[in-house]
Amino acid sequence: MASKTQGAATGGVQLSATANQFVDKIVPFSKRGTSRRRRIVNSSRYHPENEPELTQLALIKDTPPAEQTALVVQELNQLNQCQRIFDFYDPVAQLKSKEMAALNELIDEITNAKESDIDEILHFLTQDFLYNEPLNRSLRLPWHEASFFMREITQASVSSGHSAIIRNDAGEIIAIGLNSVKSVKSVENEAAPSNEKTPGQMDYIANFLWQLDRKLAENLPKDVDTVMKVEIMSVSSAWTRRGLAGKLMDFTIERQKRLKIPIFTECSALASQKLFAKYNFTLLFEICHVNYLDLNGRRIFNCDDGTDRGQLVLKMP
């Protein structure tokens, strides 16, 4: 269930208190350089209080010949007053740039997920993904229903050796990319998640993803027997819009190139659908939420972020 979750933390760009404190330390201009920049900025700004008020001059055709020379001189003086070279250096924009640089320095490099990371990954899923992934949020999925499903996916993905995590400078996981490697037959023969008459919230989600996966085998060349699957790709809602999903995608595609196998996923969120399309994944199949109904004929998913369908996408090596 690839889902690049979106949060409300980056509109402006809003920064954490830690990042704001760090900004003061990353403007290492020398005293001379700072004063020079200040002189340049001050001299290139237009200061109207230092200029005389412009007055409308008479038309040259209405001016006696003896006074036309003086009128031309006045017009040239006014023209010179209007000519200014402006420096479009924006101190506010520069500060934002420094703040973003500070945030990037707060992020450690992407690393392989290890068995010792599993509990931390599950903690990340319970604190962020569980509440921000659109399908989960739509159904208000409780952890006691999701825990077995999430643990099973996490363990299988980490053991495959092709999953990734990103931590901040405090050592906390802020983004994960869980990838598994499996046979096409295992995907094709996977049993339906639930046949219960009263399915739970997790059953609705698992069945929805299963319905998408059923279309994989028929869209693959007959000689393909192994595939990589992006199980979960998620960025903390406090760290969105900072290129972390792109880092995870680059990691995943590099692994795909190394293995030389197709890679697929179910895109359950609008954000992930856009991300995978950007990386040239091919749309194989989709299910619109309006067509996915419960036993009483009612629509199951009503997402609040614009997500209105799930997609099965594929990228060949």
TrEMBL record:
EC main group: transferase
Reaction equation(s) it catalyzes: dopamine + acetyl-CoA = N-acetyldopamine + CoA + H(+); serotonin + hexadecanoyl-CoA = N-hexadecanoyl-serotonin + CoA + H(+); dopamine + (9Z)-octadecenoyl-CoA = N-(9Z-octadecanoyl)-dopamine + CoA + H(+); serotonin + (5Z,8Z,11Z,14Z)-eicosatetraenoyl-CoA = N-[(5Z,8Z,11Z,14Z)-eicosatetraenoyl]-serotonin + CoA + H(+)
PANTHER family attached to this UniProt entry: N-ACETYLTRANSFERASE DOMAIN-CONTAINING PROTEIN, N-ACETYLTRANSFERASE-RELATED
Stored InterPro entries: Acyl_CoA_acyltransferase
Keyword Transferase among record annotations: yes
EC number per UniProt: 2.3.1.87
GO molecular function, one term: aralkylamine N-acetyltransferase activity
Pathway: Aromatic compound metabolism; melatonin biosynthesis; melatonin from serotonin: step 1/2
Protein name: aralkylamine N-acetyltransferase
Keyword Transferase: yes
Annotated keywords: Transferase
Upper lineage: Eukaryota, Metazoa, Ecdysozoa, Nematoda, Chromadorea
Family label: Belongs to the acetyltransferase family. AANAT subfamily.
